[in-house]
Specification:
By secondary structure, this protein is of the alpha/beta class. Helices cover 54% and strands 6% of the residues. The chain has one domain: P-loop containing nucleotide triphosphate hydrolases (Rossmann fold, 3-Layer(aba) Sandwich), CATH 3.40.50. The N terminus is likely disordered.
Length: 370
């Protein structure tokens, strides 16, 4: 595909806009209603959310009742795709899934986690949109970030802030690795979701969520044999890209428009997230062997995507076959996205969180890089 064709495709896709809803169930609705800003949401919108939540709860009960009638085996140890938000995890996830042929949650499942198990067949998996922050094509049948499923199931995800930016200061606890260990109430519903995704496959799924970076301590307790790939990118570029991404998501999904105080809180949250990403990366590099943990760079993935994916899969499983045709197709789809470069201010460059992440990344690349 030529550069002009790619640009035209991206422009057409972006004109379609982002999805108009995020998944919702009674626990998430309860969180939304607990804040005073709920009263500022238009009445018709509140009624629609109540309706969606009611059906989300009904569908989840029906789904899990059906699942109990046909119990699935435990989920095999997954392969996690990790890294700070806006590091390149989405493209890496799609390429790994295509090349390895392993199961992964799909967009239509993650965006309807309470009801997808009730469908006799998946919907049209060719329907696509473009992500609001970078134009990357998202197809309903493509591998998706299971964080949206966790959000819809009611887990205290950082992505709750997409709906209520005013409350982002309440969500710093989602970045606490030990908190995910201390409170395991989120695991059972998520595992049942994953069981439905994986089915009877003997190979673990490929799961991508930057938020799993902070959950890795808890996830490794659940699956000691789990493997992970962490992608690193220049922290200053990550911060700038995150500012754009989160503002785009606020614009697309916020029930009440974000104000200056929400944007100030967003900056505090993002710096905390990058600091916690540095700690999580250091912990993984210090405690996981090279055959379980691989670190790749954003630059290598951009410059040599096929070679990078082949090398990391070889490290994780020397006997693994690579589906070259599927990998090539995924590479063509990922070309729809933009990679933007940002001018970095002196103040950002001096932020301790960015310096901590840069140091952790350099150490991890040296010990666990390809």
């Amino acid at each position: 595909m030529s550069r002009a064709e790619r640009a035209e495709r991206t422009e057409r896709a972006e004109s379609a806009g982002p999805p108009q809803r995020l998944p919702i169930s009674p626990p998430l609705l309860g969180w939304l209603r607990a804040h005073q800003s709920w009263q500022q949401v238009p009445l018709a919108r509140r009624a629609a959310l109540h309706w969606a939540s009611m059906w989300g709860g009904i569908n989840l009960r029906l789904s899990e009742a059906r699942q109990r009638q046909q119990p699935a085996p435990p989920v095999p140890a997954p392969l996690f795709v990790l890294g700070a938000w806006r590091s390149g995890t989405t493209v890496l996830h799609e390429l790994i899934v295509a090349a390895s042929g392993r199961a992964a949650p799909r967009t239509w499942q993650c965006m309807d986690p309470t009801a997808f198990r009730l469908h006799a067949a998946p919907p049209d998996t060719r329907i696509s949109i473009a992500r609001p922050m970078d134009g990357l094509q998202v197809v309903s049948g493509s591998p998706q970030e299971d964080e949206f499923a966790l959000l819809g199931l009611g887990v205290a995800s950082a992505y709750r802030a997409f709906l209520m930016p005013q409350r982002i200061d309440e969500l710093h606890g989602t970045l606490d690795a030990q908190a995910w260990c201390d409170d395991g109430a989120w695991l059972p519903a998520w595992e049942r979701f994953l069981q439905a995704v994986v089915g009877s496959s003997a190979r673990g799924p490929v799961l991508k969520s930057p938020n799993h970076s902070w959950r890795m301590r808890a996830l490794r307790r659940r699956w000691p044999q789990a493997q992970a790939v962490w992608i690193v990118r220049d922290p200053a570029q990550v911060l700038a890209s995150n500012r754009k991404m989160w503002r785009a998501m606020f614009s697309a999904y916020a029930l009440v428009a974000a104000d200056d105080s929400a944007f100030a809180a967003l900056d505090r949250f993002l710096l905390h997230a990058l600091d916690r990403a540095a700690a999580a990366l250091s912990e993984c590099a210090a405690t996981m062997p090279r055959e379980q943990f691989v670190v790749v760079t954003h630059e290598a993935l951009l410059a040599e995507p096929e070679a990078t994916v082949r090398a990391l899969l070889q490290r994780l499983d020397a006997q693994a076959a690579v589906d070259a045709v599927a990998l090539a197709s995924a590479m063509r789809l990922s070309a729809s996205g933009r990679v933007e470069r940002y001018t970095v201010s002196a103040a950002d460059a001096a932020e301790p969180a960015l310096q901590a992440l840069a140091a952790a990344q350099a150490t991890a690349v040296a010990s666990h890089g390809l």
